[in-house]
Design goal:
Elements: H1 5-35, H2 40-49, H3 67-80, H4 82-93, H5 96-99, H6 103-110, E1 121-122, E2 130-135, E3 138-143, E4 157-164, E5 173-180, E6 184-186, E7 203-205, E8 210-213, E9 217-219, H7 220-225, H8 241-268, H9 285-320, H10 327-357, H11 369-381, H12 388-399
Parallel strand pairs: 1-4, 2-4
Antiparallel strand pairs: 2-3, 3-8, 4-5, 5-9, 6-7
Helix pairs in contact: 1-2, 1-3, 3-4, 3-8, 4-8, 8-9, 8-10, 8-11, 9-10, 10-11, 10-12
Length: 431
């Protein structure tokens, strides 16, 4: 899915607005960390730039940017404040969940006017404490709390992951339920080391149980395979969800590292290097070596993530044209995106660590953006889906012609499993 003149123009305007807002986001970051959430003013200001519409359907006034373009937006926001970048990423990269739930949910989520992110999700993994029971006309939800509810403080609905067992022979499975925010209660439990202002709190139901209409509860496997008609025409709704979610996730790490590098260059001019005779850190050879290493780590992460975003768009265009990639290739690509995103997060966190370590004692002050980027970048590496060693083993198994581990959850590669081990081919690839 290539950029069109319309989307490219929208991207340029959004990036210009984010850059203009950026210094304000950085200025507010310390207060937002102490509060454990963005202010309503910040959410409104971000909304005015268009960042919450970058992955929303064009049929409902959204910008529907390509995944590659969304990566640029998330990187730019993250450069100024990692928590803002996380909030924008969570809102953009999870649009496939309500869209995959069908046309009625799409209408409910994107139809009304709204300021802030429209999409939030929580506990979409097998360890969810939520329970869903089929009843006439819908579902009865109980249990909880649902954890890591990024964007739930500001979204009109939150999609809750629940374990269902309808007694019809399928056994336990994950069902995703779209729940209005006024039916939820938000816990004050987001006390963390980084990404502090994302307000990714845990959620409970307003009562002991909640009835959810049939159309708002969907077997997560059907969302993942895109088998439900949603009424939307764009190629974006055919892209692989793991490619979308994780190639853009790397944008947070890249933006954080870019912002830390810019801040390092700014504060190092004229600053002496302790223990040496250098009176200007920017004139010291050790700084030059450091900068080259930082550049290489950021550039490696950037090029890899851009390639994954572009391939995600290309695969979406193929699927929209009725010529989807074969399952073996999709499995290989999805495994690749996961492990390369984990490496991008690692390299960018290491780059920021180098900058932090060479910024002197004052760089630990809460008012200094470098220390916040240092903490935020480490949080990205600790995301539950970015276990580098596990992802590396899984991808290595695929490279060696073996099957990946069969695990449940959003990052499972089983959904693409070919009927028999075959060498993956690259569909319609041009060079």
């Amino acid at each position: 899915m290539a950029s069109t003149p319309d989307t490219s123009d929208r991207l340029t305007k959004i990036l210009e607005k984010v850059r203009a807002l950026g210094p304000t986001l950085r200025e507010r970051a310390a207060d937002a960390e102490r509060a454990g959430r963005h202010s309503d003013e910040t959410i409104a200001d971000l909304d005015a730039t268009g960042v919450f519409d970058i992955g929303s359907p064009a049929e409902f006034g959204g910008y529907e940017l390509t995944v590659r373009e969304q990566l640029d937006v998330i990187s730019e926001v993250s450069k100024w404040d990692g928590s803002c970048g996380w909030t924008v990423w969570a809102g953009a990269s999870t649009n496939w969940i309500p869209v995959g739930s069908g046309a009625r949910v799409v209408e409910e989520v994107y139809g009304p006017a709204w300021v802030g992110p429209r999409v939030a999700g929580s506990s979409h993994f097998p360890a969810s404490r939520g329970r869903a029971k089929r009843v006439e006309g819908g579902w009865v939800v109980s249990g909880g709390p649902w954890t890591f509810g990024s964007d739930s403080l500001w979204a009109p609905f939150t999609n809750l992951g629940c374990i269902a067992d309808d007694g019809e022979g399928e056994g336990r499975y994950l069902v995703a339920l779209q729940v209005p925010r006024d039916e939820l209660r938000f816990l004050d439990d987001w006390q963390v080391a980084g990404m502090c202002a994302t307000g990714s709190v845990s959620l409970t139901l307003a009562g002991d149980e909640l009835f959810v209409p049939e159309h708002r509860g969907v077997d997560f496997r059907r969302i993942a395979d895109g088998s439900i008609e949603n009424g939307l025409k764009g190629d974006l709704w055919k892209v692989p969800s793991l490619g979308w979610a994780f190639s853009t996730m790397a944008g947070m790490s890249i933006g954080l590292a870019q912002g830390a590098l810019e801040r390092f260059l700014e504060r190092s001019a004229g600053r002496p290097v302790r223990g040496t005779t250098y009176r200007n850190q920017l004139e010291a050879p050790l700084t030059h070596l450091l900068l080259a290493e930082v550049h290489s780590k950021i550039q490696s992460a950037t090029l890899m993530s851009r390639a994954n975003a572009e391939e995600t768009d290309r695969l979406g265009a193929l699927a929209a044209a009725g010529t989807p990639a074969d399952p073996a290739y999709m499995q290989m690509f999805s495994g690749r995106v996961l492990v390369e995103t984990a490496y991008a997060a690692k390299w960018c966190a290491e780059a920021i660590e180098l900058l932090q370590r060479n910024s002197g004692s004052t760089a630990i002050m809460q008012s200094e953006p470098i220390q916040r980027a240092w903490r935020d970048a480490r949080v990205v590496t600790l995301h539950g889906a970015l276990n580098l060693e596990a992802l590396a083993e899984n991808y290595g198994r695929l490279m060696a012609g073996a099957e990946p581990h069969k695990v449940a959850g959003i990052t499972t590669l089983d959904r693409f499993a070919p009927t028999a081990p075959t060498a993956p081919t690259v569909p319609n690839k041009t060079t």
